[in-house]
Amino acid sequence: MNAMTEANLKSAFGGESMAHMRYLHWAELAEKEGFPGVARLFRAVARAEWIHAGNHLRVLKDRVGDAAVTAGGGFGYQSTSQALQGGIDGETFEIEQMYPVYKQVAEFQGETAAVRSFHYALETEKVHRALYEEAKAAVDQGKDISFGTLHVCPVCGYTVKGDAPEHCPVCGAGADRFEAHQV
Q: Which of 8, 21, 117, 181 can bridge 44 by disulfide, Cβ–Cβ 3.0-4.6 Å?
């Protein structure tokens, strides 16, 4: 594996791992503030971020040893609205800067497994940002969200409101594989 793609995978693993934990903590904050639907949204997206981290880690399967990882992460959020904005900002960074560059480097270096892992995360983060934007609009009006069921693809992390699609539009996994999360 090329060194730059390896470093990008490690950075992405670090970022997704931090997002996973951050979203779980923000779920607790949302519950305490009376937004149980937002809390469930944070937990569903945390699951997708865990899937992304796992995909990156599997691509790094033969790489062992320590690694210093630089990954962005928001800290100090004291309200559900601020946490949702933090989620929007983090997803936007991944969509507009991080994953397009990581994917392009991996394509240039012929690292097909890394390209796939980065593609899965990039396409899923677009959905997460939209869900967070919708939730923030509700919270800023003092309302909770009720998306019904969110389905998360266990292969790529794609997240969809309502019924699972017949096939995941990102990775092609069948509807029977999607995990249901009540929101």
A: 181
Position 62 scores a pLDDT of 78
Closest CA to 160 of 171, 147, 172: 147
Show Cβ contacts of residue 172 under 8 Å, excluding neighbours closer than 6 positions. none
Residue with tokens 């933090």: 86
DSSP state of 167: B
Q: What is the DSSP letter of 98?
A: I
Average pLDDT over residues 129-140: 98
Closest to 19 measured CA to CA, from 113, 88, 104, 116: 88
User: Is there a contact between 73 and 89 (Cβ–Cβ < 8 Å)?
Assistant: no
Q: What is the torsional sign of CA 100, 27, 78, 17? A: negative
Distance CA 47, CA 38 (A): 14
